[in-house]
Write a structure and sequence with these properties.
CATH topology of the largest domain: UDP-N-acetylmuramoyl-L-alanine:D-glutamate ligase
Structural class: alpha/beta
Strand order of the largest sheet: 7-8-6-9-10-11-12-13-14
Radius of gyration: 22 Å
Helix content: 25-40%
CATH superfamily of the largest domain: Mur-like, catalytic domain
Shape: globular
CATH architecture of the largest domain: 3-Layer(aba) Sandwich
Number of domains: 3
Number of strands: 20
CATH class of the largest domain: Alpha Beta
Largest sheet: 9 strands, mixed
Length: 439
């Protein structure tokens, strides 16, 4: 007899896991509370409801919950009272995947860049390799194509880790932890607890690659049984560190120095490169291949991405900066004369931590989106503010006031969902408007 699976949420991962369940022979019922969801890629054998969650999903043996849906919504409370098993897309996908190694990356910032770089280095040594999670496609899309030789490199958010408490990768990477997603997790402690799930189930034969320079990461490191390899921007006795433009690997009583040409700006990207180096080196990639691929690497779209120079003004797209600390990192990548486009949907954190940095480096802030008033209130008189409402108007305004030598930086410090479906769309709109400007 076929088992029944309910899918709660029909975003990208919900559609992918629903289709996977159908291919595995389950009866699938899918539910989403939005009427606007696009389901054209959903298998036509799947029964669906849109615009709300009815009790029909309670006929499921298992409910697969999409990331970000609160466990305490009424329909899930009913499901728990009926003892229906509730799992994540990640857990279901892993149950139906084959693999040699799982490499999992999390952190408040830097996940996508680090995941992308790791996947490129791993691919150079292990041809049977896929990348999934928040970068590219959910693992559900590729689960049935995996083999016992597959290396799975996966980027994971706090939402995904929160829903997968028994996750156990072969290699975990914890890049950094700063306050974020407090609108969902409510407290910083709950956010940290979600991040901890990447390493708390690991065993002695596993590895945990951890940022020594981040105090919260060092604290979390005490909760794993895995072999810990720290990375740092400064000298450390054991691990991987940065010294005068070189990367030094002190692992397994070996001292190896690589001298890559680094093409991505900012000290945060040095941290990302250090983490990628540590991971791939312990997985058996030669230092020469690591050096070669780092030297070719140009970064990812929407993360301090150079767009163009116009009239001596440089334009950068940092739409992926969806929290305050990510914007701090972007601001530290430029010395001065920044015209900052900032705003969107507030995520519950204060903007005050970047107040002094803005005072030192930002000529003016061009405000967009729902959080405009809160940003101005938090940042006070540290610079001048221009209310622009949306990106198109912000770019037009900045074009009028920018002079040669200035840097125009879209680094919102906010989610995109007030005006866009995701940060990628926000970045593409910015790019389009910047390229529409006349000399």
């Amino acid at each position: 007899m076929k088992r029944n699976i309910g899918i709660l949420g029909l975003g990208k991962s919900g559609i992918a896991v629903a289709n996977l369940a159908i291919r595995l022979g389950y009866n699938v019922f899918a539910s989403d509370d939005s009427k606007e969801i696009k389901t054209k890629n959903l298998n036509n054998k799947i029964v669906k409801e849109l615009g709300g969650h009815s009790d029909k999903i309670l006929s499921s043996d298992i409910i697969i919950k999409s990331p970000g849906i609160n466990l305490n919504i009424p329909i899930l409370k009913k499901a728990r009272r009926k003892n229906i098993k509730i799992i994540s897309e990640l857990a279901f996908s892993l149950e139906n995947s084959k693999y040699r190694k799982i490499i999992a990356i999390t952190g408040t910032n830097g996940k996508t860049t680090t995941t992308d770089l790791i996947s490129k280095i791993v691919k150079a040594t292990h041809k049977d390799s896929i990348v999934s999670g928040n970068i590219g496609y959910p693992l559900s899309y590729k689960a049935l194509k995996t083999t016992r030789n597959t290396f799975i490199t996966i980027e994971l958010s706090s939402y995904q880790l929160e829903d997968t408490p028994y996750f156990k990768p072969n290699v975990s990477i914890l890049l950094n932890v700063f306050p974020d997603h407090l609108e969902h997790h409510k407290t910083i402690n709950a956010y940290i607890k979600a991040k901890e799930n990447i390493l708390i189930n690991q065993k002695f034969r596993d590895f945990a690659i951890i940022n020594y320079d981040n105090q919260i990461c060092r604290k979390i490191s005490k909760k794993t049984k895995a072999k810990i390899i720290f990375f740092s921007k400064n000298y450390i006795k054991n691990g991987v560190f940065y010294k005068n433009g070189d990367i030094v690997i002190n692992i397994k009583d070996k001292n190896v120095v690589i001298k890559p040409k680094i093409n991505i700006i900012g000290m945060h990207n040095i941290e990302n490169i250090l983490a990628a180096t540590a991971v791939t080196y312990i997985l058996g990639t030669s230092s020469s291949i690591i050096e070669k691929i780092i030297s070719k690497y140009k970064g990812v779209k929407h993360r301090i991405e150079f767009i163009r120079t116009l009239n001596g003004v440089n334009y950068y797209n940092d739409s992926k900066s969806t929290n305050v600390d990510s914007t701090r990192v972007a601001l530290e990548s430029f010395n001065k004369d920044i015209l900052l486009i900032m705003g969107g949907r507030d995520k519950g954190s204060a903007y005050t931590p970047i107040k002094e940095l803005i005072k030192q480096r930002v000529k003016s802030i061009l405000l967009i989106g729902e959080a405009s008033n809160k940003i101005k209130k938090d940042l006070g008189n540290c610079t001048t503010f221009i209310h622009c409402n949306d990106i198109e108007n912000a770019v037009k305004q900045v074009f009028k006031i920018a002079v040669g030598g200035d840097t125009v930086l879209l680094s919102p410090a906010c989610a995109s969902f007030d005006q866009f479906k995701n940060f990628e769309e926000r970045g593409e709109v910015f790019r389009k408007v910047v390229w529409s400007l006349d000399i």
